[in-house]
Write a structure and sequence with these properties.
The protein has 103 residues and is α+β, with helices and mostly antiparallel strands. The protein is 36% helix and 20% strand. The protein contains two helices and four strands, in the order ββαββα. It has a two-stranded antiparallel sheet with strand order 1-2. A hairpin with a 5-residue loop joins strand 3 and strand 4.
């Protein structure tokens, strides 16, 4: 399956917006443009799953900031148990597809 969620981070008390440094998060919808950018990043990196951090500039242009296979879930709607289950299922599907190609 294809699971996506997005949240915006902010920190009115400092320039660091990461949640561990006092930032807060709010859910936000992903535009078609940002979905396409994430698809391109995932396809180019050949990653089955990832946490992708984007920076949206003042002119609204998105920039890739970070890709993490083990990013934190603080601020996310999904919990670690469900995410780990989805990762295992996805990796199993990939392994089976690779095995089918080898036969």
């Amino acid at each position: 399956g294809d699971y996506r969620e997005a949240y915006a981070r902010s920190n009115p008390d400092g320039f660091r917006k990461n949640l561990a440094a006092g930032g807060s998060s709010r859910n936000m919808p992903l535009s078609d443009k940002l979905n396409a950018m994430c698809d391109q990043i995932m396809g180019r990196a050949l990653m089955p799953y990832a946490h992708i951090d984007l920076i949206i500039a003042a002119d609204e242009r998105p920039y890739l900031s970070e890709i993490s296979l083990g990013g934190g879930l603080h601020g996310a709607r999904i919990d670690k148990q469900r995410l780990d289950q989805m990762k295992r299922e996805h990796l199993q599907t990939l392994a089976e597809a690779m095995q089918d190609r080898a036969v």
